[in-house]
Every structure is written in structure tokens, then in C-alpha cells.
Amino acid sequence: MSTAAAPVRQLDAHTVGELRRAAEKILTEFGTSATSRPLLERVAQQAGEFSQTLRHHCRPVDTADGLFVLRGLEIDDEAVGPTPADWASAGGSGALHDIELLLLATAMGTPLAWEGQQDGRFVHNIVPSPGHETEQTGASSTVLLSPHTEDAFHPGRAHLLMLGCMRNHDSIATTAASIRRVRLSDEDIDLLTRPAVPILPDDAYADAQGYAAEAPPPVPALYASDEGMTLRFDPAYTPLEGADEEYRAAYGRLEAELSRVSVAVSLSPGEVLVVDNDLVVHGRVPFAPRYDGTDRWLKRASVRIPGRLTRPPAEAREHGYGQAALEARAA
Ligand SMILES: O=C(O)CCC(=O)C(=O)O
Ligand SMILES: [Fe+2]
Fold this sequence. Notes:
This protein is α+β, with helices and mostly antiparallel strands. It is built from seven helices and 14 strands. Strand 8 and strand 9 form a beta hairpin. Helix 5 crosses helix 7. The structure holds 2-oxoglutaric acid (AKG) and fe (ii) ion. Belongs to the clavaminate synthase family.
């Protein structure tokens, strides 16, 4: 794994102020970052008034890295208070930054939430939580969070994943590997673009894991879209034992290549990592949680980009294990 620098989009002080004032205005009006239809509409309106500069910073991912870091937001370590012990008790912690992230997400596309995850919130809190140390979810810590496409089991998954850093005293890295950096033989690509095995719902979706109404659909790991190669990959939730040996070997080579091109991005407070979820798998290195209110703390938002053609059309027929994606589309 390398620590090669991710492309950075540095916000100037003026633009940071513009974003902050927009968020402050909304927080004053609503008194909360809890998302409601009126708040989402207000956010969309405010994002529609963004300056040309701020909009330019929110343009699509435009390099083969499949990601960028937006840098320069102001986080007051004292004012945001202690890192919440888990998402459920986070409440309004860092509410201003929830709204900032939601504004940025809205400038990039349509924010997305899940009925079955973190109470349907549009901005998630990612913190290490007691009892969840070894899971393959954002709440874990002591294990490697293996590289994955976010919400890979679902056809309504995000096109962009945004991770905004509130606190990261131990410089714990997110990992990212782009399919556009991977080298595979034509034979492997041919195998991996076929729907061989399903991707099952992850541990963050207890309801979906109990879904038994229809069989899990096999899905391809790779897709040669008009825009180039894209991927849908989550080995921790892929029952590979259902595939033949040839496929398993090709899948293993894809995994090895992703690991070869993986970069470590250690976020600092005020940085937002934006990952193209069709190009890049992300994960996290293991770390020792502190559990004293000073733990690593990220805010996460998911974004859909309407009309994007980076996925196989057959996805539209998938059941998504009964999970409903909620899009913040204007009513
Ligand atoms: O903690 C991280 O850096 C990434 C966690 C993760 O996979 C996520 O929030 O989706
Ligand atoms: Fe993730």
C-alpha cells in the first residue's frame, strides 16, 4: 500500500466562509440537522445559490484515482464536543458540519439515506463503538475493514461516498483502490464481468440480512461502461464458494491487484474525502479505539448522480433485499 497523495481541492478562506454561513443560516432556521423534507428543500435551495468557485470544487471526480480530498473546512475541536460513543447517541453532535456536508452532497448530486441504517439519517456518524470492534462496518476498529464498494448489495447504492473528518488524533487511514489503476488479463476481465455470485447485505443492515422473499441475484464484479471500467466488490459479503474455481482465481487476482494499487488517505479535521463508489473500493486500517471522547470521528454522506451510466442496466431488476433507499429529491 502506498501513501501517494490524493488529489486535493483546497478551499480558500472566502469559499469556506460561504459554505459555513450557508450552514449556519439553515441551522438557525431549523434548530437541528435532523433531516426533514423542508430542511432538505432548504439545503437544495441554498446549494443552488453556491458561488461558481464552490460549485467548481464540487465537480465530478476527474482523475483515474477515482477520488479527491476537499480541504479547508473549519472544525473547532472544542466546540464540536466529545466524539459520540456510537451513532445512536450522536444526536446533534457537530450539527453544523452535518449541514455543511449535506450542502456539499447536494451540490454534487442527490443525497441518499437508508431506512434501515442509522435511523434513516442522511449524514452518518462513523465512530468506533464498544462491542463492534471486529465487525466489517464503520463502527469497528481493531480489524482491517477490508476494501469494499459501499452498500454493494443494493442497486440503489451511492455513486459518491463522502467522508468528512471531524477528529483523527491518531491519523488512522482510510484506504482506497481504483479499478482504473488495476491491470488484469482480458480473460480475467471476461470472467469478472459475468454475474457469477451475489453480494449479500452487510452487518449494518440487520433487516436486509433476514430477507428471504427472493433468491440473492448473482451480480458481476466488473462492468465495462461507456465511461470505462467500473466495479462492484465486497469480498466479505460475497459467497465465493458458489462460484467455480476459475472464477474464484480471477476474483483473487482482482483482489490482489486492488491491494497493489491501494493508497492510504489519512484525513485531518476539515477534510472531506470524496470517493467515486463505482471506481474505488475503500476500507480502513485497524486501530486501537480510545473510548474516551477523543476517538476518530467521521461524518458520512452518500450521493446519487441521476442519469449516470456506470452500472449494468440489469441492476434495475434487483430486489435490493427489501431495503429502501431514500433520495433527497425535491418533492
Ligand atoms: O472509517 C473509514 O475510514 C471508512 C469506513 C467506511 O467504510 C465507511 O464509512 O463507509
Ligand atoms: Fe464503507
